[in-house]
Structures are given as structure tokens and as C-alpha cells.
Amino acid sequence: MRARPLTLIQDDLVDYDTAMERMTDMVGQRQQDARPDTLWLLSHPSVYTIGRRTPMSHLPDPARGIPVMETGRGGQLTYHGPGQLVGYLVVKLDEDQGIVDYVREVELRLVEALGKLGLPAERRDTPPGSELLTGVWTTETNRKIISIGMRQSRGVTSHGFALNVDGDLTPWDWAVACGMPDVDMTSLKRELGAASMDEVRTAVAAAFEAS
């Protein structure tokens, strides 16, 4: 894996709309070489986000009271909430690298971070004709712990990943996550019995060479 040091920005809870506005500004700055490659770590209040291909049947019952926001990233429905670490990646890709290549790199870096935290994990290749298996899965329990949805514009990436640390997993059961009705979403706390958000942030930042 090529060296790719990133500038690290950290926030706690940021509304999704506010985060999208700031991320869009970051992308514009990176396209003009006015800022370095950046990893922004944060969390969101409870919200579902959907990709452009998400079927209406995958959405939660509105009576659950959690807003649903359409987003420009790839992928299907994802839930965000407190206790989840979100990472937005604003990175200028090399000329020989496409967004699929970079998503694979993101997966591998996150597998490394989880390994340092004591949780064996893996990325998966998608069989022909199947829903994309983008993300990171636990090796021993076969559960999905990280969702990834990204895009690129004029050679610069946006959006990123969501790692479940110690938040409530129940909202995942109210919708069809990642386009996979049978997926079992998990968290570090569920797998290891305990999880520290500060430790997770440190491990993720280190895996992305971010400071």
C-alpha cells in the first residue's frame, strides 16, 4: 500500500447537513490544491442516508422518527448515530488510481485499525451479480462492522466510512442496511464486550497516517 499521509480534523457530534456543506467546501479546496488530503473524524445525530439506487422498500417506517437524507455517495442505505465513528476522506487520487481502487485501500486500512484494536476483520470481493460487499466484516462472527460509500469528482474523493463503536444497533434493524436484507450489523462493543471511542479514533487515524 502506498504511503499517503493525511491531515486530521476531529469533531464530536455534527448535524449531517452541516457536515455535507463543510465536506463540499473541502472537496472544492482540494480540487484547487488549496488544502491537503484530509481525514475528518466525527459522529452524527441519528439519521439514515440513502444512495441514488436505494429502493423505497428499504427505507424505515417514518413512525420511527429518524430522518432519511438522500446523499450523492455510492452504496445503499446506511444508519448514522451517536457511538459511531464517521470518517470523511477528501483525497486527490493519483492519475493511475480510480475510486474503486481507493475504496479497496480504505477497506484495508480499516482492517488494519480493527486488528490493532483486537478484532480480526476482512474485506470481501463481490461475487458476480451480487449486491456490493463494500465495507469491512468480522472474520470470526461474519458480521458487518463498517459501511463504506464514496464518490469522486474531478479526481477528488468525498464521503467515506462509518464504524460502529458502542452505539445502539437497533435502528439498523428498522431498515434494509447496505441493500442486504440478511446482513447482521455489529459494533466493537458487541464483538469485544467494551469499546473506547478515543482508542478507536487513535487507531483509525494511525491506519490512515493522519495527524
- Report the average pLDDT across residues: 94
Through-space gap between termini: 18 Å
Low-confidence stretches: none
Number of helices: 4
Order of helices and strands: EHEEEEEHEEEEHH
Task: Count every beta strand, where a strand is a DSSP E run of 2 or more residues.
Answer: 10
Question: What is the overall shape?
Answer: globular
Protein structure class = alpha+beta
Rg over CA atoms: 16 Å
Description of the molecule:
The chain has 211 residues and is an alpha+beta fold. The chain is 24% helix and 26% strand. The chain contains four helices and ten strands, in the order E-H-E-E-E-E-E-H-E-E-E-E-H-H. It has helices spanning 16-31, 99-116, 188-192, 197-207, and strands spanning 7-13, 38-43, 47-50, 68-70, 78-80, 84-90, 121-122, 136-138, 144-153, 156-164. The strands form two sheets. It has a seven-stranded mixed beta sheet, with helices on both faces. Helix 2 (99-116) packs across helix 4. The model has no long low-confidence stretch (mean pLDDT 94).
